[in-house]
Amino acid sequence: MKQRIFSGIQPSGDLHLGNYLGAIKQWVGLQDEYESIFCVVDLHAITVSQDPAVLRRKTLEIAKTYIASGIDPAKASLFVQSHVPEHAELCWLLNTIARNGDLTKMTQFKDKSGFDIEAEGSESVSAQSFKERFNSVGVGLFDYPILMAADILLYDTQVVPVGDDQLQHVELARTLARRFNERFGETFRVPQSRVMEEGARIMGLDDPTRKMSKSAESQYNAIALSDDAETVRRKIKKAVTDSGSEIVYQDDKPALKNLINISTLLSGMPIHDIESKYQGKGYGDFKSDLAETIIAFLTPFQERIASLSDEETLRILREGAERVRPIATAKLNEAKGKMGFLI
After folding, report:
1. Which residues are registered as beta bridge partners of 36?
2. Is residue 4 a contact partner of residue 37, using CB atoms and an 8 Å limit?
3. Residue 174: which domain range?
4. Domain check: are 294 and 326 in the same one?
5. Are 4 and 158 in contact (CB under 8 A)?
6. What's the pTM value of the predicted model, to 2 decimals?
7. Measured between alpha carbons, how far is residue 65 from residues 52, 70, 89 in Å?
8. Structural domain total, the chain
9. Do residues 15 and 214 lie in contact, with contact meaning Cβ atoms separated by under 8 Å?
10. Which of 67, 33, 37, 60 is nearest to 326 (CA)?
11. Rounded to whole angstroms, what are the CA distances from 192 to 172, 204, 262?
């Protein structure tokens, strides 16, 4: 039997090439190799303030993006997290065995909250200052790694495809699975991480030291999957480059290396062929061609999204939820039974 994978994306911000190349494109390749469960994780999105109308629209947009990218509802289960309430209930059960110390070390919490509990809890920080800053951070933002663990453990997930920045969250799921099993008896499968291809780690066009981001302040950080041709050309033209003009794939040229990664992943042209193609040419020629490569990908992609109605997408999502919910219900009831609840 195929091993089972689970992954998901939050319906917040505008999806960009980094999301596609770093995750969705690779999921498409995995759906034939694994029993695949892909989710729109809307419960995670509300850890920060959301406009309800925008959240509904973005949830459908993410689902359409999955389908337009090639995720086949006949091969993979595709659903919305909140349509399967067992996710939230298992999160609460896991909360009771999790420890504050499991969460204070989470790098993404520190990044999103701007608050490092371990560093700012030192004697050099006044108790009042610490209290004020800590009390201003939402509980959901602090606790969401437990919900992520519930997402994974609910389906006896064997493999979790992640970028290296998410390894910490999978490790927490592994910790909680082992802790629960030791306390209540064998219940949860301890999942393994599958780190996505290194070349698919797409960095910001304006800063090659940081990942392309949905929440970046600058409009020139990312190519959104919804960008039109002229916007793509403008953004690539403004993308930062390194010193010199030679088109070479080297670690000491991180900005150029990032652009070459985008080019090879979208065009299928090997890196050494790209280097050969632009021998004797400069950044201008390469960036102009890269923009057209991106446009050649985005145009049919956007047409496929436009062809998907809200009604058809909802039907696919509801059928996906119906397919996975018996798995989720059985696992939740098993955990509740082990803990002493009446089923």
Report:
1. 5, 76
2. yes
3. 4-195+310-339
4. no
5. yes
6. 0.89
7. 20, 9, 28
8. 2
9. yes
10. 37
11. 11, 29, 28
pLDDT at residue 141, as a whole number: 85
Active site residues: 112, 211, 214
| CA 288 and chain centroid, separation | 29
Contact yes or no for 84/324 (Cβ under 8 A): yes
Question: What's the pLDDT tens digit per position in 78-99?
Answer: 999 999 999 999 999 999 999 9
Cα(327)–Cα(154) distance, integer angstroms: 8
> Average per-residue pLDDT in the chain?
91
Burial of residue 82 (CB within 10 Å: 0-12, 13-18, 19+) is middle
Asked if 66 contacts 72 with a C-beta cutoff of 8 angstroms, the reply is no
Query: Higher-confidence residue: 36 or 138?
Result: 36
pLDDT score for 99: 92
| One domain, residues 275 and 316 | no
Which residues fall within 8 angstroms of residue 233, CB to CB, at 6 or more apart?
A: 291, 295
Structure tokens that stand for 99 in this block: 């420890």
In a domain, 219, yes or no: no
Provide the 3-class DSSP secondary structure of residue 289.
Answer: helix
- DSSP secondary-structure letter at 198? G
| More confidently predicted of 126 and 196 | 196
User: In this predicted structure, what is the pLDDT of residue 1?
Assistant: 82
Identity of the residue numbered 134: F
Pair of tokens at residue 343 = 């089923």
d(CA 228, CA 265): 20
Q: Are residues 240 and 131 in the same domain?
A: no
The verdict on 168 and 98 lying in the same domain is yes
Give yes or no: residues 294 and 331 share one domain: no
Packing angle of the helix pair 283-306, 229-238 (nearest 10 deg):
150
